[in-house]
Each structure stands twice: as C-alpha cells, then as structure tokens.
Amino acid sequence: MDKNLSSLLKWSVEHSTPSTTSNRATLPTHSPPSPSSSNAITTNDDPTTDPTTSSTATPRTQLNPELLAALMGGPSDADLMKSSIAAVLDDRTPHEEKLVAFDNFEQLVEQIDNAMNIQALGLWGPLGRLLGWGMDGEGEGEGEKKEEREGNGVNQVHGGEGAVNGTDEVGKGTEEENADLRRMAAWCVGTAVQNNEKAQERALAVGIIPKLVRLALHDTDEKVRRKAVYALSSEVRNYQPGVDELIRVLPVEMNGGVGKGDGDGEGDGDKDGKSVDAADMEAVDRIMERLRGVTVGGGGKGEGVVVNGS
Known about the structure:
The protein is an all-alpha fold. It has 16 helices and no strands.
C-alpha cells in the first residue's frame, strides 16, 4: 500500500468515533467534597493529572503536506510531473515559466520513486526530444515513439492535440531559449538516473546516451555541454550497459582508444569487445574530463568530431 494512503488510513482510524468514546470512558469521576475539607479544590485544574494529556497516551499520526493534499484531493507527484513537462512543451507558456516548470520537475525526480515513474508516465520520450530542442536534424527515435505509445504521458495532459508542440517542428524560441531547454532537460535526466539503475536502464533503452553525447560534443552553448556531461556521468557510473553504449558512440579519441577502432572517429570501441569497467571511477572520470575539454565553434559542430548515432 502507498505510504501516504497507509498514513491517511491510520489517521482516520485514530480520529474515528469509537476512539473518542473510548477516551471519554477513561475520564475519572469525582466524589463530592466532604464537609471537613472546605478548602479542598473541587475541580481538576492540573493538566498533569488529566488522563487526556498523559504521557502514556498513544501518539497521534500527524498530517504532513502530502497527506493533506491526499485528503483534500490535491495533485499527486505524478500529476505535477506530467503538468510540468506539458507546460514546457506548450507554446503558450512564457519562457520563464517553462524554466520554473522544468525546475519543479527536476526537484520531483530527485526522489527515486518519482524518477522510476518517468517511464509509467511516458515522459522519457518528451525528455529525449527536449535534449535536441532547436538543433538541426533532431528526429524522434523509435525508442521514443515506443515510449509514448506505451505511456500515458504528456500527450494526454492536454488531450493530445498540440501537447508535444508538434514533434516534427521543435525549437520555436530564440537560440538562447532553446539552449535553456536543452540544458534543463539534460539536468533533469542527470538527476533522475543518478544512483538509480532502473532509471538508467530506461534512459539507455530510449536512446538518451547518443543524444547526450551529441550535446556534449556539438552544442555551441557551454552550459548545455556541461549539463550533458553531468547527465552522462550519472547515467554510466556503476552501470555497465551504459558505459558500453557510451564507448560505442564516442569517437576513438574521446574514449581513450578503448577497442582500437579503425580510426574513422565513429565510435568503434565495441568492435574488439573491450570497454571500460563501470565501477572504475578513475577510468570514467578520464572520459568525462575529455568531454569537459571539448570546445565547439560557432557553426554548431564540434571540430573534427563525429558521433555515431547522433
């Protein structure tokens, strides 16, 4: 049972009528004062002797904000996650409000349960598209299409029509605004997959790693590149399939020559069946440092860098 539902049930039982009746039944009765005790106190004004405030009384369950929201019918975390991404993808939302919505989403997916719920809500597909927001040639991969078919995510928040901003025509904002959305998407991905193997598995399945590599190597905005490297680091640490995929899509000069590819710079690290140990933090760090050192010219492409799968 959901912990909030369980706590709410417990609170309801504690405050039910039988509990109140039982408490009343324990109240003491007072005998009339004797004539010889004219100065006796006839009322019980000492709270320490009141059974209703006794230290032995069972503690009552407290209603935290989440319980109050459940009691009053407020939005769940899942509802907030869907509405946040829907707001980001809605052309009518002002840019500053999109950033606020993205920030709210990032805070929600800090919780492992919410991060794992991204799949059930069908939000990996929209996150993947936002990683390419405003970049030329960004298409929708089969993994994203499958995610959206199976999920009940953003398309259903606004009833479907226009909910994903027209996936074939993305990036209607300015260059700076589009870069902001790519940066926030990478940040959210990095937070969601950090120390969360289930989320790492799903991100891998929908093709997030090649998109992050593309940002890390080709995005002209340095802030976007840094967030992409952060997300890649979170995705592959202690997750071997993620490291293997990263080595596969990285150019040889970026993966440290693992696998000794044929030199065409198209990520040949897996050809010789070699990779990097996901638990080897120093080896992973070396790859991330190379990525952090990438500089991109004004044309929007990395100098002499080609990413397989981008």
